[in-house]
Write a structure and sequence with these properties.
Oligomer: single chain
Low-confidence stretches: none
CATH architecture: 3-Layer(aba) Sandwich
Strand order of the largest sheet: 2-1-3-4-7-8
Distance between the termini: 5 Å
Radius of gyration: 16 Å
Helix content: 25-40%
Structural class: alpha/beta
């Protein structure tokens, strides 16, 4: 199976480096992506918005044969959902890592402080305690050293969706920061935060308790959760 891995904000393809070996050892082909504007700290991020990131991942889908699995971490969840909408017949499963699908008109996070076209990684004090669970001082230092400013448009642009077949694509939510039971409670309560997720017809929930960056704090367990989700899809490698 081809597995396309979309990083969250401030991260490039290398953020998956401790996750991909286990996926490849199981016989899968991994495609960790560096999205437009995330090539380097000095990259030009002007004019890069959510649509450009969705289009970049869609192009990666189009470059493969057969169905693919999409994995999106954090803000990458909104991006892969846009790709599910663009290519619903090509996606075997969408896996949301501490994230979920973003519905029509939603934005990833327009409250993040921007500096021109850039959204720099905020200071740690700008995050909730739950975000930072297991992210020790060493991991925080490495994260900040590798962090690349996020294009402002990706965080601020509204999502636009067109094809309701997106609700037929199976999804897995790997819940880290909040337990899956809480997500189910929000769905039952009709919370707008999970309104789009509530419309997906086949969703499984997997709990991986840690902070918001399991690819750094629990990479082996994250790889195992992704493998299990892919295998449950009943697809041949």
């Amino acid at each position: 199976m081809d597995i396309i891995l979309v990083p969250g904000f401030w991260l490039d393809a290398s953020s998956w480096e401790e996750v991909t070996p286990a996926l490849e050892a199981a016989g899968h082909r991994t495609h960790p992506l560096t999205l437009p504007g995330l090539e380097s700290v000095d990259a030009n991020r002007a004019g890069i918005g959510l649509r450009q990131h969705i289009d970049a991942v869609t192009a990666e889908v189009d470059a493969t044969d057969g169905k693919v699995v999409l994995v999106g971490h954090s803000g990458g969840g909104a991006i892969i959902h846009g790709v599910v909408d663009a290519r619903p017949d090509r996606i075997a499963r969408a896996i949301y890592v501490d994230s979920g699908p973003l519905g029509e008109g939603g934005v990833i996070n327009d409250e993040l402080p921007a500096d021109g076209d850039d959204v720099p990684l905020p200071p740690w004090e700008g995050f909730e305690d739950a975000d930072l669970v297991d992210l020790d001082d060493g991991l925080r230092r490495k994260f900040r050293e590798r962090a690349i400013p996020q294009p402002r448009g990706v965080a601020y642009d509204p999502q636009h969706l067109h094809d309701e077949r997106r609700y037929d694509v199976p999804a897995t939510v790997i819940a880290c920061e909040f337990p899956s039971a809480m997500l189910r409670e929000w769905i039952d309560a009709g919370h707008p935060f999970v309104a789009e997720l509530a419309r997906v017809r086949d969703v499984e929930y997997v709990d991986l308790p840690t902070g918001h960056w399991p690819q750094f704090t629990r990479p082996a367990e994250l790889a195992g959760a992704i493998l299990a989700a892919v295998d449950r899809n009943g697809q041949l490698h």
